[in-house]
Amino acid sequence: MSSSKITYLNKNKKKDYLYILDIDGTLIDSGGAGRKSMEKACESLFGQTIKLNAKDVAGRTDSYIFKHILKKIYPKNRFSVDLTEFKTVYIRNLLEELRDKPTNYLKGAREFTDFLEKSSGYTPALLTGNFKKAAKIKLKEIADKFEFGAYGDIKTNRNDLFFDALGLYQKKYNKNPDKTVVIGDTPFDIECAIKGNAISVAVSTGPYSKEDLKAADFVLEDLSQWPSLLESI
Ligand SMILES: [Mg+2]
Predict the structure, then answer these.
(1) How far is the CA of 117 from the centre of ligand 1 (A)?
(2) pTM here?
(3) C-alpha 192 to ligand 1 mean position (Å)
(4) pLDDT tens digit string along 149-195?
């Protein structure tokens, strides 16, 4: 379907739909840059070699991952390592990892975010486990297409971020969206949508298969299927 047809379809759209998108595995594939940067941070801060696999981190908030790492390193002790220090080292490593590397936007991601940004009646937002700074570093030039975002800086539970995102919408527009759609690549994204009474859309461009994601209202191969998704919602 051509984008001109989409514009026509939505020309008289009066309702406001809030589209909340995840980053890793949904909009981009950073090739494990986040994991590598965390592993390096553990090496330099704790002198420990930690191995994180894709499913250890997918759908989790950065604060959750950090706490999970600390539990692995200090299983018996109460720990008092400051998240701020970890964040600083992690962000520095991430900048280094991604410097001079072109961003690998997943299929349909750029076109879809362009459409949401330019079309009236749609509010594009982010809901990501990434620290806010990490989200900007990873998204590069498409970061500004989103009106606001809920990030994993403090909260360890992704579901709580949904209410942060909704709250930001309510604060900005002084009303509730007519429909809210959550798009992500993990069962955690689906759970988050369900907890928020939102429409869940899963994409199989992350570490989970379509079968793993079948609990979603809509399961897509990738974001290039956005025109038919918009018609269905
Ligand atoms: Mg993801």
Answers:
(1) 21
(2) 0.90
(3) 12
(4) 999 998 889 999 999 999 999 999 999 999 999 999 999 999 999 99
